[in-house]
Amino acid sequence: MVSEEGKLLILEDPSDEELNRAREHNGPIIIVLRKLGSVNVQGKHPMNIYILKSPSDEELEALKAQLMARRTSTREVAIEGPISRRELLIGRVVKVIEKNVPTYFENACSARFGCNDCVNACPTNATSIVNNRVVINENACIECGLCVSKCPTGALAMVGADDNEYVALLNKLNDVKGIKRITFTCPLNTREPRNGEYIYRVPCVDAVSPEWVTMALAKSLEVSIECPDQSCKLGGADYAKGLINAFMGSFKLGITKDDALSMATDETLSERIIYMGIRRNDYVKALVRLRPRSKGVTNELLKIFSIHIDDVKCSFCGVCFAKCPERAFDVGRDGNKTVLKFNSLKCIGCGHCARLCPEKAITINRAREFPMSDSTDVVYDEVVTCRMCGKPFDTRRHIMTMKIKLGIKGDPEWLYLCPDCRRYYTAKKMLENALGVKEVKSYV
């Protein structure tokens, strides 16, 4: 079998000639071995080659769905060193290597709002923010994927570590039955999948985000993270252990004999859940599914944030509500009061609201308690209605703050008029002053 679906090439028991042609293929390759014991595929980046030995139909269909959704690719990066005779003959003047460097999606990035999690995560300082954009030094990048896993919005992706690929797989599992576990591991791990297991290869287990683990658990799948090299300099083994412990400490989950997270009770969550490929939105959907299993606490690895608003300083101006890039704030009514609500599951901790707050009343921290409701009330204020037309138009806090900032003395009647009535009132006063009319009955 030789077939090509988009950029995905599928070979079954390929000949040497087919393998030679496959090495020039620009995209992922699935090699299915049914009669052959092994093949030589040197020359291709390991994240572009997937070798399956007598796979089940479920495993093959799931892998095809994942790879057909791939939107990233490895790239050639120039390095120092002598070029080979072959490179010279094909016209290369510098030595290059194929690297799995992160791809940047600017429209999903929150760097312009103050987020710099990818920069803080990079162990080699290969990531920086220039003019509110993420810039990656391809030569310094070591393909660990930490920047990808730490990004709260999915603005960075690598071959094998891309929300698009992962969501395509999870959605496919709504129809493909028989897979009960996802095991994340790197290309160094060459073992065959066990019964009901899907091996998801990532560049390094450092690239596995808490969002991905949560999304799989919300589908009642077991989740395993395997680092095949305990002495790996990238620290994958320690990261995997820390992530597993974070989930065990925050949710009522079981752990299997081979250290996989499991739902572990008779109660099962609905397996059918559709993800959209928008990282934070999918994460919130999965966390809400897992809320009944929460232990009431959380871990800093889970990217959940809390907010404190100084009730004395807050003027209820609404800047936080209007400018939050993740729409974590909302405004509602409670009787004759206005309420500012906050959804901590939506918050990515960028700090944009705190920087914009004119009263400097907002403080953001990593949450210690798991939010047991979609939103919490953080500030109340009295609704002020127009004394002329009766229409609600502002809050008591905001009016008092503006009064102080503008140095308004006393308690003038126009201060309690809506914008429309205030224009009418001002025009009326100007006309009365121009005509010299005095002691006009107040409209307030």
TrEMBL record:
Keywords: 4Fe-4S, Iron, Iron-sulfur, Metal-binding. Residues 100-131, 132-161, 305-334, 338-367 form the 4Fe-4S ferredoxin-type domain. The keyword Metal-binding applies. PROSITE patterns: 4FE4S_FER_1, 4FE4S_FER_2. GO terms for molecular function: 4 iron, 4 sulfur cluster binding; metal ion binding; oxidoreductase activity. InterPro entries: 4Fe4S_Fe-S-bd, 4Fe4S_Fe_S_CS, Fe-S_Ferredoxin. Gene3D superfamilies: 3.30.70.20. It comes from the Archaea. It holds the Pfam family Fer4_7. This is 4Fe-4S ferredoxin iron-sulfur binding domain-containing protein.
